[in-house]
Design goal:
The chain has three domains: 320 residues, Response regulator (Rossmann fold, 3-Layer(aba) Sandwich), CATH 3.40.50; 32 residues, no CATH class; 139 residues, Glucose Oxidase, domain 1. It is built from 20 helices and 14 strands. Bound molecules: FE2/S2 (inorganic) cluster. FE2/S2 (inorganic) cluster (FES) binds next to loops.
């Protein structure tokens, strides 16, 4: 794609606040001078907002204040004026009922923080799962020049000589405790070994996936995604990102110039190649909605179907982000996609160059970590989009995280009406279930949980784990942690709480899963299905006030990204009225 930079110098939006000698200008400028800024900083140079998701309660982003200083250094060097702006931060491992409930709130907050303040360009300082999509969504809706720098992954965890992957091993160890293969003391010892440094989850979980998506979309500088949080090169990346945003403002290089349909297709294929999280599906659909790109679930299946998973990282593979970085990181993957004819090479990136310009010289330093296509982890990476009478609007499954033997399966439904029902029943040895059954979890979608929690990979009953069985077919309208694995059908739409067919599944119904045929089917007659749907009533009370009500009333289905109906689209950067 050819991008024609805007003319420079020209008047920037920040001059609406700080340019001239009027009473209002002096009000805006004079007050900021109480921080000791010299007058010449208000001479029309780009003002860069460093939108920082640091929070003591978002440990994955706990080092971002330090990183912000490096961004600032870069902005100063390039002749810009950096101002750090704290924005809403939702930690994946802390926020209840689920961080996903706050992604749209964070997106709305950052959108307004960018539009309502004198910001000409933004550095999106993100890391933990929801912080990356939310800030990208907010920036997309303002279309103010923006660039992502992520906090980077934690160093490898190690426990008794083995790599310990964030999340992935938490699920493994907790199942081992349930199965009697690990005692509580060992579990606590393992806890200490999981998180050795600052940074995000070190698996190819959602945080690493979304960092990779930002880079594949062209919204982060090449090589950003994999650099460990504590590596000095992470700080270098922050500094050169600070330099780069100043030029992006001068050139007027906006999110809408970069996030085209081709860029989204590159990101979807990248997700297949890295064995990325199913959460990328909802986030990219929502992000596309903000820039007005017509992206659907079917694009996920179409683009991702024939992409082999070549990145050998947990949860699909063996290694962690640290090794991915040493092997060459995402540029190697993008180069391999390009060589295989699976990359729009001329897609523009924040560097002002095409993606191919950025990655064509990349080298693979470890072919066990980034595998040659002939030794791929799976030939059919990506996300399978399933449809049928159980999910008329679609459901997703990650084949690379599933058991091949279960990809075609017929089994008896064992139904949990919601997560509380699951928790009450799952450890009961009297539960009528065996490994051939299909576990069905309802009311965990966007409206149901609320927030669409990551409970789709519900743990198996202890009596089955004790037999040495580690996977069963599971179906829900929930999400799954990007660090998790299993034959898990997710994001079933419409969701149960909105009266989707998942709501009317009963214990003993037979369910058929056929991933190759992209089919998920409840084996009852159409008449029976219609009759059950007609008599369905919601099981939960609806929220009457506060953000929970706003969320419930406006959140859309997972099949379109679970954004709020009133937040879709780009509203631009114009503000209109002055503050006085
Ligand atoms: Fe924050 Fe995984 S919980 S990155």
């Amino acid at each position: 794609m050819t991008f024609k930079p805007a003319q420079w110098p020209r008047k920037l939006r920040s001059q609406e606040w700080y340019g001239g000698t009027s009473r209002d200008t002096i009000y805006h400028r004079g007050w900021l001078k109480n921080q000791g800024y010299p007058h010449d900083l208000f001479d029309g140079r780009p003002i860069i907002g460093i939108m920082n998701t640091w929070s003591d309660l978002t440990p994955c982003n706990g080092h971002l204040r330090e990183l912000a200083e490096k961004v600032k250094a870069g902005v100063w060097e390039a002749g810009g004026f950096p101002l750090e702006v704290p924005v809403f931060s939702a930690s994946e491992n802390t926020f209840r009922p689920t961080a996903m409930m706050y992604r749209n709130l964070a997106a709305m907050a950052v959108e307004e923080a960018m539009r309502g303040q004198p910001i000409d360009g933004a550095v999106l300082l993100v890391g933990c799962d929801k912080t990356t999509p939310s800030l990208l969504m907010g920036a997309a809706s303002t279309d103010i020049p923006s660039i992502v720098v992520t906090g980077g992954p934690m160093l490898n965890g190690w426990f008794r000589g083995e790599r310990v992957g964030s999340g992935t091993h938490l699920w493994k160890f907790s199942e081992a405790v349930k199965a009697g293969d690990m005692n509580q003391e060992e579990f606590l010892e393992a806890e200490q070994s999981m998180s050795r440094s600052s940074g995000t989850c070190n698996t190819m979980g959602t945080a690493s996936t979304m960092a990779s998506m930002a880079e594949a979309l062209g919204m982060a500088l090449s090589g950003n995604a994999a650099i460990p949080a504590v590596d000095s090169r992470r700080r270098v990346m922050a500094q050169i990102t600070g330099r780069r945003i100043v030029q992006m403002v001068k050139d007027d290089l906006k999110p809408s110039d970069i996030m085209t349909k081709e860029a989204f297709e590159n990101a979807i294929r990248t997700n297949g190649a890295i064995g990325g999280s199913t959460n990328a599906v909802v986030h990219l659909l929502a992000l596309a909605g903000r820039v007005g790109i017509d992206l659907t679930l079917d694009d996920w299946d179409r683009c991702g179907k024939d992409v082999p998973t070549i990145v050998n990282l947990m949860p699909s593979g063996e290694y962690l982000m640290e090794e991915f970085f040493y092997a060459g990181g995402l540029p190697v993957v993008l180069k391999m996609l390009g060589e295989g004819g699976k990359l729009h090479k001329d897609a523009l990136t924040v560097s002002g160059e095409t993606v191919w310009d950025e990655v064509s010289g990349a080298r693979n330093w470890d072919e066990d970590v980034i595998r040659p296509v002939e030794q791929a982890l799976t030939d059919q990476g990506g996300i399978a989009v399933l449809r049928g009478n159980l999910a008329p609007n679609g459901a997703v499954l990650k084949p690379s995280a599933a058991s091949p033997s279960l990809l075609k399966h017929r089994g008896r439904a064992v139904v949990f009406e919601d997560i509380d029902d699951y928790k009450v029943k799952i450890d009961d040895d009297q539960l009528d279930i065996d490994e051939t059954c299909v576990m069905v979890l309802k009311n965990c979608g966007p409206k149901g949980y609320p927030g669409m929690s990551e409970v789709g990979n519900m743990g198996l009953p202890p009596k089955i784990l004790k037999k040495g069985i580690t996977d069963m077919v599971r179906i829900s309208d929930a999400r799954m942690s990007g660090t998790a694995y299993g034959t898990v059908v997710l994001h079933t739409a419409p969701e149960a709480a909105a009266g989707g067919p998942l709501a009317i599944v009963r214990n003993g119904d037979m369910i058929e899963l056929d991933v190759a045929a992209r089919r998920i089917h409840l084996d009852i007659s159409d008449d029976e299905l219609t009759e059950r749907l007609a008599s369905w009533t919601p099981i939960h009370e609806l929220p009457e006030s506060g953000y929970a009500k706003l969320f419930h009333d406006h959140v859309e289905g997972a099949d379109t990204g679970a954004d709020f109906d009133f937040l879709k689209g780009c509203r631009g950067s114009a503000v209109g009225k002055d503050s006085h």
